[in-house]
UniProtKB/TrEMBL annotation:
Keyword Lyase annotated: yes
EC numbers for this chain: 4.2.1.136, 5.1.99.6
Protein's name in the database: Bifunctional NAD(P)H-hydrate repair enzyme
Organism the protein comes from: Occultella aeris
Binding site for AMP: K419, G420, A421, V422, T423, G448
Family label: In the C-terminal section; belongs to the NnrD/CARKD family.
Residues engaged in binding (6S)-NADPHX: 60-64, 141-147, 176, 277, 327, 376, 449
Subunit description: Homotetramer.
NCBIfam families registered for this protein in UniProt: yjeF_cterm, yjeF_nterm
Co-factor requirement: Mg(2+); K(+)
Reaction(s) this enzyme catalyzes, per UniProt: (6R)-NADPHX = (6S)-NADPHX; (6S)-NADPHX + ADP = AMP + phosphate + NADPH + H(+); (6R)-NADHX = (6S)-NADHX; (6S)-NADHX + ADP = AMP + phosphate + NADH + H(+)
UniProt keywords, alphabetically: ATP-binding, Isomerase, Lyase, Metal-binding, Multifunctional enzyme, NAD, NADP, Nucleotide-binding, Potassium
The YjeF N-terminal domain, residue ranges: 10-233
Length: 538
């Protein structure tokens, strides 16, 4: 499991070590220099003579940068340090000077000019940036408050603009947190550095896991500076499940299990308008490995479900988890079986799409129950607007998904899995999970119906907390999409997949060399067993 800690916890963990005189900044700077060297080598950049620009702010983050600049200069790189404050870390500055780093004070004059052109005071540093192979961002770390101001904001805006126009393609390494991100949250308050690699100290920060901020960090390397134990004693409000965590909580059947002990999933999904959702949610649940699926929706959809999955049962009966709402239109009346499940505290619930309207208005009504809502941003906007009183736009949610998912848990009393490129799961009063396991190919009709089925099966088959199971479902769903996109599997029941057996775990992102192939929701469901096997065999 990955854990992310707020700045306050990082500072508390480092305080005793600093008081004891441990050379944390030296260790941090050494790790940054090592990461720069390793990444430059990976890119085939000759180190001696390579040009690096360090952007140094006035705090300890700038100190890390200046010491790292000194290391790199001693390795033969040509290093310039842009000093963005009149006063920068004095020992760091002295070390950089001794190592032969060129020091370039950056004037803030006119930095906030209104013309949209780079401010005149920035011209010298932009000229160095244009020629540099490597930019190292040491403007600010956990000490940043609010959007980047003044000369730093203007400089980062100008650098981002140059990269966007593809004039330049330097290696960008951020120290601790890309500058411009507030380390405790996923929202991006203004201009922020876009890093290829972020070398982060002591522990991960929430901004490195949460959308949309996390996308600015690139690959994250954690350097614990010997403080992992001190930090582990503190609560981590943001977490990410890994495959091994999912293996630990996966309901693997034992010899004494039968279909009822494995868990029965009830499905109230699909409608005359959207019958396919019933099929896809059934596929998701069956491929995840529940004991039985009971399909309780309309007859037309039931026929389609049975045609694809003859193992589905359409008779009413006991269920351990119920999936309510995929493929059901907003405003549809509450079916009797859904009404019963909503008041039966023994039944875990997955509530999606049209089912979201069926939730009790009193958030305490679901207290103590395992209930997971699975909206996308548009559905969450609607739910927050109807329940919270004030209108909330989809774009507002996309600017800070974790915050709004948490707000929805307060208003409903349920766990909320907010679907997106990075999926966040908020629980009442609890940890937020942030899962980034998928690929853009997953954004296809019916994908969410499959996810609801996967989650229904996990809730039916395991007693683990709903939030962890929701994060596990997101991980498996994401990896199934990656696996399907990589192996270009045909429709469910089609020919055996071809491809590298290593990729059967679904691990590892698709990349420029193998961007993957288009997939359908059926492909995602079909890939789930391979992904589960990969996770369990790990
Ligand atoms: N202690 C140690 O030995 C170790 C510390 N470590 C490192 O220290 C970092 C924390 O250092 P920190 O506390 O000094 O804060 P830091 O992140 O440098 O930010 C302050 C600077 O940012 C500026 N600034 C703030 N807001 C701004 C804005 N909106 N827009 C523009 N500027 C803004 C602020 O300017 P000012 O407000 O003072 O004008 C000041 O210059 C941590 O992230 C890690 O990298 C680790 O390596 C472990 C060892
Ligand atoms: K930084």
């Amino acid at each position: 499991m990955r854990h992310a800690y707020p700045a306050e916890a990082i500072r508390a963990a480092e305080a005793p070590a600093l008081a004891a005189g441990e050379p944390l900044m030296e260790r941090a700077a050494y790790a940054v220099a090592a990461a720069v060297v390793a990444e430059a080598r990976r890119r085939g950049l000759a180190l001696v003579g390579a040009r690096a620009l360090v952007l140094a702010g006035g705090g300890n983050n700038g100190g890390d940068g200046l010491f790292a600049a000194a290391h790199l200069a001693r390795r033969g790189l040509v290093v310039t340090a842009a000093l963005l404050r009149e006063r920068v870390h004095p020992e760091g500055l002295a070390a950089a000077r001794r190592a032969g780093v060129r020091l370039l004070p950056v004037s803030g004059d006119g930095a906030q000019g209104h013309t949209g052109m780079p401010a005149p005071g920035l011209a010298p540093v932009l000229a160095v940036a244009d020629d540099a192979d490597i930019w190292i961002d040491a403007i600010a770390g956990i000490g940043l408050t609010g959007g980047l101001r003044g000369v730093s904001g203007a400089l980062v805006a100008a650098l981002n603009e140059r990269r966007e126009r593809s004039i330049l393609d330097p290696l960008v390494v951020a120290i601790d947190v890309p500058s411009g991100l507030e380390s405790d949250v996923g929202a991006v308050p203004g201009e922020a550095v876009r890093a290829d690699v972020t070398v982060t100290m002591i522990g991960l920060k929430p901004a490195l896991l949460l959308p949309p901020a996390a996308a600015r960090a690139g690959r994250v390397e954690l350097v614990d500076l010997g403080l992992a134990e001190a930090l582990a004693a503190r609560p981590a409000p943001v977490r990410r499940l890994l495959g091994v965590d999912v293996a630990d909580l996966w309901p693997v059947p034992g010899p004494a299990d039968h279909k009822y002990t494995r868990g029965v999933v009830g499905l109230l999904a699909g409608s005359d308008a959207y019958p396919g959702a019933a099929v896809l949610a059934s596929s998701g649940a069956l491929r995840t490995g529940c004991g039985m699926v009971r399909y309780l929706g309309p007859e037309g959809a039931a026929r389609m479900v049975l045609a694809r999955h003859p193992e589905v049962v359409t008779a009413a009966g006991r269920v351990q988890a119920m999936v309510l709402g995929p493929g059901i239109a907003v405003g549809a009346p509450v079916p009797e079986s859904a009404g019963r499940a909503l008041v039966d505290s023994e039944v875990a619930l997955v509530v999606d799409a049209g089912g979201l309207d069926w939730l009790p208005t009193d958030p305490t009504a679901l207290a103590g129950r395992r209930v997971v809502l699975t909206p996308h941003a548009g559905e969450l906007a609607r739910l927050l607007t109807t329940r919270g009183g004030d209108p909330v736009e989809r774009s507002t949610i996309e600017a800070d998904p974790a915050r709004w998912a948490q707000r929805a848990t307060e208003l409903t009393g349920a766990t909320v899995l907010l679907k997106g490129a990075v999926t966040v799961v908020a629980q009442p009063g609890g940890t937020v999970f942030s899962q980034s396991d998928g690929t853009g190919w997953l954004a296809t009709a019916g994908s969410g119906d499959v996810l609801a089925g996967i989650l229904g099966a996990l809730l039916a088959g395991s007693d683990a907390p709903a939030g962890e199971l929701a994060a596990a479902a997101a991980l498996v769903h994401g990896r199934a999409g990656v696996w399907a996109a990589r192996n270009r599997r045909g429709s469910e029941g089609g020919p055996s997949p071809v491809g590298d057996p290593v990729s059967a775990t679904g691990r590892g992102p698709l990349d420029d060399r193998d961007p993957g192939a288009p997939i359908t929701a059926s492909d995602i469901a079909a890939a789930v067993p391979e992904v589960v096997r990969g996770i369990l065999a790990h």
